[in-house]
Amino acid sequence: MDAACSGHYDRALGKSLFIGEIMKTSIRKFVLLAMGILTIGVFAGRAQIVGQVDFKMTQPFTVENTTLPAGSYAIRAVQGTDQSVIQIAAVSGEPSVLVEVSSAQPNASQSGSQLVFNKYNHVLALSQVFPGGGNAGYQLVVGHPEKLAAKTEKPTKQTVTATAK
Questions:
Q1: CA separation (Å) from 36 to 29, 41, 44, 47?
Q2: Average pLDDT over residues 153-161
Q3: Are the CB atoms for 52 and 165 separated by under 8 Å?
Q4: Which string of b and e fits 125-143 if b means at least 16 CB within 10 Å?
Q5: Distances (CA, A) of 154 to 121, 123, 147, 150, 157
Q6: Helix residue ranges, H only, the chain
Q7: How far are the Cα atoms of 8, 38, 146 from residue 66, in angstroms, in the given order?
Q8: Which residue from 160, 147, 138 is spatially nearest to 120, judged by alpha carbons?
């Protein structure tokens, strides 16, 4: 190679290396930013009942496959389940039911602690629990009574105010 070609090659190679370094730096920054956002999202999106959520029902209601009588109840996350199982128990301790849950996001219009029920003609099924404070809530597993009712009816949403403690 002559000197003129060699200089041109070195400059082109230098530019390639420089652009490659910029790309690597940009990709690293993007990956770090994405990991940070995902980490924050995992912690912010996780439903949490710090203590318990108390509520009172004036009529029987269904939780998964169990019908509970009217009365005062408390909802607590079950220890050791990574908040994927909650307990709904009468204030007296019985009756009580454990139910699997997944995370649910509150509507922008929701404020405070509340429960969301799916109301059918003969079934009032607890669907979601929101502890309040804009935090994510819980989506309960749909039980057999609600599945049967949903085959022939469209539910209406009914909310019940709760108190987070």
A1: 11, 9, 12, 19
A2: 94
A3: yes
A4: bbbbbbbbeebbbbbbeeb
A5: 9, 11, 11, 6, 10
A6: 3-45, 144-152
A7: 79, 36, 11
A8: 147
Nearest to 72 by CA among 50, 97, 85, 89: 89
53 beta partners: 75, 164
What phi and psi values does residue 127 have, to the nearest 5 degrees? -110, -45
Bridge partners, 85 (sequence order)? 100
Query: Which structure tokens are listed for 63?
Result: 């939780």
> What pLDDT does residue 81 have?
77
Nearest to 83 by CA among 125, 136, 132: 136
| Residue 90: alpha-carbon gap to chain centroid | 25
Residues 69-78 as b or e (16 or more Cβ within 10 Å = b): eeeebbbebe
Structure tokens, 130: 């929101």
Decide if 47 contacts 86 (C-beta within 8 A). Answer: no
Q: Which is nearest to 119 in space by CA: 163, 89, 150, 87?
A: 150
Instruction: State the pLDDT confidence band at 42, using cuts at 50, 70 and 90.
Output: very low
Query: Please, are residues 64 and 127 in contact by the beta-carbon 8 Å criterion?
Result: no
% of residues, the chain, pLDDT over 70? 69
